[in-house]
UniProtKB/TrEMBL annotation, chain A:
It is found in: Cell inner membrane. It comes from Chitiniphilus shinanonensis. GO terms for molecular function: isomerase activity. The gene is ppiD. Its main location: membrane. This is Periplasmic chaperone PpiD.
Automatic annotation (TrEMBL), chain B:
Gene3D superfamilies: Tetratricopeptide repeat domain. It is found in: Cell membrane. This is Ancillary SecYEG translocon subunit. SUPFAM superfamilies: TPR-like. Its main location: membrane. InterPro entries: SecYEG/CpoB_TPR (IPR018704), TPR-like_helical_dom_sf (IPR011990), YfgM (IPR026039). Belongs to the YfgM family.
Amino acid sequence: MFDIVQKNKTLVQIVLGLVALGLVIGAGVSGYSAMSGADHALVKVDGKSITEYDVQQATNGQPISNEMRPMVIEQLVQQRLVLAAADKLGLNPSKPQLQQAISQIDAFHENGKFSPTRYQEMLAAQQMSPAMFEQRVRDSIAARTLLGAYSVTNIVPQTTLARMAKLVGERREVQATVLAPSAFVGQVSVSADEIKKYYDSHASEFKAPEMVRVEYVMLSRQQIAAKLAVSDEEIQKYFDAHRAELLGEQRDVAHILFEVPKGAKPDVKAKVRAEAEKVLAELKANPGRFAELAKQYSKDPGSAANGGELGVFGADASLVAPFKEAMFKLPKGQLSDLVESEFGFHIIRVNDIQAKSTFEQVKPQVVAKLQGDKAESQYRTQAQAFGELVYQKGDSLKPAADEFKLPIQQSGWITRQGAQDPQLNNPKLAEAVFSDDVLKGKHNSEAIEVAPDTLVSARILEHKAAQQTPLDTVRGDIEQRLKLEKAAKLAAEAGAKQLAALQAGQDAQLTWQPSRQVGRLGERELNSATLAAVFSAPADKLPAYVGQEVPGAGYVIFKVVSAIPAPPLSDEMAQRMRDEVARTYGQVEVSKYISDLKAAFKVEYRKAPADAGNPVE
Amino acid sequence: MAFDLQEQEQIADFKAWWNSWGKFLATAVILALLGYLAWQGWHAYQKSQAEKAGLIYARIEGAIGGDAAKIRADADLLKQDFSGSAYASRGALFAAKASADAGQLKEAEAQLNWVVANSDEADLRDAARLRLAAVQLDQKQPDAALKTLGGAESTGFAGLVAELRGDILLDKGDSAGAREAYKEALSKLPKDAPNIQFVQVKLDALQKV
């Protein structure tokens, strides 16, 4: 079919995603290890290095936090282990196997058959070479073959399943009553002595951290941009070039295609053009015949039968470039001249145009964009000079402020953990202002990028060493805390007493919350022991009572009102449960198997470079 | 061209050496050459074997959920012609799974027994034991199942083995034994294992109040 709509991009993304998922443990990219030197190895698995480059590939070049890094590296280690084991066991797919697998991927099919052209095109759209893609598929098959025996062949005994279905499906109806500590606060008192003792033994909790206040100058591209003038002409020009995206236009288009076969001789092409021009002339005379002539002449099988109607497209439509350009220039209802694309000649008509916004609405956006673009080069130059100036004239911010016409501002308190002012809340800045050079040497900090295209240099105004908060400041808090602790103890005692009374068959004057059902799985509120007790109360001797201390909430007594046995499972449900449980156990086996592989292959972790860690206090 | 005395002496030495060692050397070279060729041939053979086995395995994998008898036929083919390959045990496990799903427990058992007896991978043998014990339990042979699990090797599957042992003991009415087995499972499984709450529930259900 004629592919004016190259709509398959997402499809390939999905397919590539699936192939990567086949690895079970994340997307693998191989074939690049030769590019990176062994010196930079973060980990060596079976003699092969995992490098910084691999980490970046694994995260698609997205920056990751230091906490995430070990996890990503661990994934890569597991992936390499799996591939090493598959290789050792001779489970690498052969060429025919690889070809078979690729040829079965639907996205590469045309007319129900694998199409090499399509394959090339789709990979090109992903900026991937066939070699890269084939390596991925190969790794994926090897991993699946190695692990499939663990992940998908699990057999769960019916006996076990039946018991589990019963356990997981049965429920208890319970009512709760809560003895909250707040109700007992009135009965307790806390002595000054106790408060002092608590304060002394928790001294580290009552410490104010080291803090500084700074004066600073900030140079940003945004500031530069705001001062730049943009002419109406420039605005109009940009608007015209981007009107479809700016206005969120949706255009309903129709076309007639006069097909020029690929590699056609000039005389063939001329013949097609002549025919197209004839039809165009006819249409100009009789615009009403568009649908009829489209049916008669158009070689686009998708739209010809529809009178040429293609549908509605926005600025993000994947259409061949000349066609797209032409259709977004056309006024509503007017015919285009002949538009030449790789498929041949098109006559295009725009039936309708819908826009989400108006020129006036998007104008500020256009101005900001043009200012930003203009400011770009100015900012680069100034940023460099700024950095040099604050360093060379390190004893004052004034030269930099004068030179770049920036105000000298004063900050709120900054600790090593962060700053009060949001625009200064940046770990690099905190590190800089607490550095010896700035804090003790009283120099300007270097220029620090606190946000994209925003530089700050700061110097110390005021410094407060870490200090103990005086007892009087926190006395109230401590008293409250100790009272609650004591009250919680009282609540628990009272609760336990009432529970005993209830269990002995006495009626305690309690208000019960409305009843609710609980199951054995997924109850957050009840801890394991309570849950077990709730369920083990004999069903023929209800109500029964169970108590539990809940940190923060007090003492909770549960009254088990009734037992609801598990509903019978339909065959379909039983089958689904069986599959699901088998899959769960498959996962356990796979992860256990991979940890066994760690013992079977040599895995050497290198120490992380010193600058990778957070600054230490 | 004339050789000087020293050179003549060297030539004579060489001739004497050649007479006594030449044949041996030639034989050695030929043997090395033959060995190299055989090694190359062996590799090519191995590669073509792996290729064939891989294609059969791919067929099995693609048929999962389908006709158990067909999957078994392919698995048997792997066992017969490529018994040494890692594909054979994997094929047998797939065949066992398909058989068990179809309720053909005897057939499943035969496949699993083969893996336990023939696989070169300890983890895979233990995986087969877990499945074999499950199939035996469902055939009301708890003692055979316990015996199967008793043969488990020291792999990372110890937690799973303990859990299944608990299931079997409970089936035999041995609650105390089951409780101990589930506790062992909890101690051997990673804290974040997805089955851990199943074990906990099973254990809780046995807890004395």
